[in-house]
Specification:
Blueprint lengths: L12 E8 L3 H8 L12 E6 L11 E8 L3 E13 L3 E6 L7 E10 L2 E10 L5 H8 L4 H35 L6
Antiparallel strand pairs: 1-7, 2-3, 3-4, 4-5, 5-6, 6-7
Helix pairs in contact: 1-3, 2-3
């Protein structure tokens, strides 16, 4: 993707995808299990549901703890803004009306498998990235570009991990073994 010249206020987006040889239910069970997501990400350290929730639903909130070598550690609260079982799971980070980011998993079942997409929109609400831009406004485009490249690589790692887990579960079920 070409993010040259992208500015935070433009709400730049990224989408990665992978084909998974597993039924949508298997993939859905993985992407909608937020507490499992830290195992697929270097930056995301832990996640927990808030407000006595134990599973996703529209409006549910969860807290995420993150760590990045250059940015340090921080905690966010996310709000589920789109929830269509077996199809779409999306959340807005911080303020759902003015999010610092919006993340989405979408599933498209077909041909005895599932096309998984992970999508991200930066901004428009304030974030650690906007703080860095405020400190170095002349470097905004470079800051946004570098962060988008980091996110793209991390998202590729995440969908690959989900693919491996889903296909591993499907293979275990197909061979008569219990999935781990």
């Amino acid at each position: 993707m070409d993010w040259t010249g992208a500015r935070y206020a433009d709400k730049p987006t990224i989408e990665v995808q992978t084909w998974i040889c597993a039924p949508a239910q298997t993939v859905w069970d993985l992407v909608s299990d937020i507490e499992a997501m830290p195992g697929t990400s270097e930056e995301l350290q832990s996640v927990r549901w808030l407000d006595d929730r134990t599973a996703p639903c529209l409006g549910a909130r969860f807290e995420g703890h993150n760590r990045h070598q250059a940015l340090g550690e921080w905690t966010t609260v996310s709000h589920v803004v789109e929830y269509q079982p077996l199809r779409v799971f999306a959340w807005a980070v911080q303020d759902p009306d003015n999010p610092s980011a919006v993340w989405r998993f979408s599933l498209e079942p077909k041909d005895e498998g599932t096309l998984l997409r992970q999508w991200l929109q930066l901004g428009p609400g304030p974030s650690g990235l906007s703080y860095a831009i405020d400190q170095m406004p002349d470097k905004e485009q470079k800051i946004v570009f570098v962060r988008l490249r980091e996110f793209e690589a991390a998202m590729q790692t995440t969908v690959k991990a989900i693919k491996e887990l889903a296909e591993g579960e499907t293979a275990a079920e197909g061979s008569g073994k219990a999935s781990e």
